[in-house]
Amino acid sequence: MERRPEARTVKVVCTNISEGKEYVGKPRRRWFDNVANDLYKMCVRGWRKIGRDGYAWKLILKEAGVLLGP
User: Fold this and answer.
1) pLDDT (tens digit, 9 = 90+) per residue, 13-68?
2) What is the C-alpha separation between 68 and 70, in angstroms, rounded?
3) Which residues of 34-58 are buried (b: 16+ CB within 10 A; e: fewer)?
4) pTM above 0.85?
5) Sign of the torsion formed by the C-alpha atoms of 38, 43, 49 and 54
6) What is the C-alpha separation between 50 and 44, in angstroms, rounded?
7) What is the C-alpha separation between 57 and 50, in angstroms, rounded?
8) Fewer C-beta within 10 Å: the chain N or C terminus?
């Protein structure tokens, strides 16, 4: 998703905070925030840059157990 242009619907939905009722207290977490937190826990630094390199990104996904193929 990081490699997609800024105007693509998928990127807009994942990076923007939705409109609606505001809650008191801690802000709601976005899907993107959860992914960033998971990568931080995996000690992956500079993941936005790595995401642009398809081969390096595939290695990270394989290490995380997301990819189950060759």
Assistant:
1) 777 766 666 667 777 788 888 888 888 888 888 888 888 888 888 888 887 777 65
2) 7
3) eeeeebeeeebeebeebbeeeeebe
4) no
5) negative
6) 9
7) 6
8) C
Tokens (6 digits) for 17: 């905070």
The single-letter code of the amino acid at 53 is D
Q: What are the tokens at 39?
A: 């990568």
Single-letter amino acid, residue 22: E
Query: Concatenated DSSP letters for the chain?
Result: -TTS-TTSHHHHHHHSPPPSPPPSSSPPPPHHHHHHHHHHHTT--SHHHHHTSHHHHHHHHHHHT-----
